[in-house]
Amino acid sequence: MSIFSSDVSYPTEQQAYAEKVRRIITAFGKTAKACVVTYGCQQNVNDSQRLKGMLRLMGYEITETEENADFIIFNTCAVREHAEDRVFGNVGATKKLKRENKNLIVAVCGCMAQQKSVADKFKESYPYVDIVFGTQVSHRLPEFVYKRLTGGKRIFELELKNEKIVEGVPIDREDRFKGYIPITYGCDNFCTYCIVPYVRGRERSRAAGEILKEAKQMVDSGYKEIMLLGQNVNSYGKGNADGINFAKLLRMINDIKGDFIIRFMTSHPKDCTEELLDAMRDCEKVERHLHLPFQSGSDRVLGAMNRRYTREKYLSLIKAARERMPDISFTTDIIVGFPGETYEEFCETLSLIKEVEFSSAFTFIYSKRQRTPAAVMPDPVSRKEKGEWFSLLLKEQDKISKKLNNNLVGQTVRVLIEEPSPEEGFLIGRSGTALNIYVEGEKDLIGTFKNVKINSYTNVLYGTVVE
Ligand code: SAH
Ligand code: SF4
Ligand code: F3S
Known about the structure:
The chain has 14 helices and 19 strands.
């Protein structure tokens, strides 16, 4: 059997609902418009592209503006409190839009909506929200829209059964040369600060055949960059019977013919193996970059976070990766002010970033998430003090990024020209080591690979195309 053969398709029941919605909304004579507002990580961006795919199947035109939409979906994130506050504010603003457009339907979905307390809040205090649905039922969007459009009750659908992944959901990729492929859904790691396992459910890996089919279709239609997504891509394949783990999957995607680059995130250090590093070294299409969140440099804090690796193990991974790929770059995620973290422990985080020299770091102040084990841990350090530590960390990382960037001046790197830059006359190119470089040039270069000489560094790297 060919690995590309697949008889999995979008459920016919949902296709039938989509067709019924299409008949209803086209009967009004004008094209109905839908707007998807996305918060959170790449996984959510990819989910939104599937929501847009289903909306198009239903006959909606996609609009970027909420004001002229007949249907608005908020695809939300729950990872930190700040993200949630913004959603409540923005959903609240649709009350006014509903007064102006009686036919407007408002839906809220994603990680935040998956929490019962949040869904209940929408039910009780936001009567103008028509549909709330969780992360594992989003493929049923046509059914929800049909039921509400035809006068049904408000819909609250939060089922989290961790069943088989629904394949074949239509997708509207937006970009024509770079795109995401989810390889795992959910997370089983239960880091004590994190809400993701509760709102996304158990980790489930897609069948390798489905991933390869999607990758091949993308490459055949001209895609130049594929980003593999998962909360922990390194544990890909657990529970699948075919024995294909992440390292093997990378090799298989690398074997697809064509000129393209393979990126992936996120890697969890506890599941980062020598086999994976070997695969990265051997696969010429895989980027020379590892996003490897370490969260804290202190073994005691790592233990309290349930990260299941030590500082020493983390540093040995960095060393093993550098031995195989001397030009590899690293980025990371860091949490400052985990409950009970002391200043001395925070200093271990500072020393770790100096030791590794990450090209950049995503840094967060700990945010308490209800239901997680860390939410009930004693947390004596004030927000103000955590803010001061956070500034120290930013300052240190900034010094490191500057030093690394200055060292790059004079080098020539291959980049994929990805988008216009905020600066007139420049485009943003991304290298195989995940550097963003401002490249002089016209928009027709977008979507092509170019060799670029890095000329200078002032806050950003600047370069010119060389042949
Ligand atoms: N699965 C990925 C991370 C997903 S969330 C991984 O484990 O690497 C992205 C980042 O948000 C995390 O790496 C962490 O640094 C941060 N984060 C998650 N929960 C948080 C919380 N409660 N407070 C502050 N930052 C948090
Ligand atoms: Fe959250 Fe940890 Fe899972 Fe990442 S690995 S999503 S931080 S529980
Ligand atoms: Fe947020 Fe959910 Fe992603 S909580 S970070 S959108 S997995």
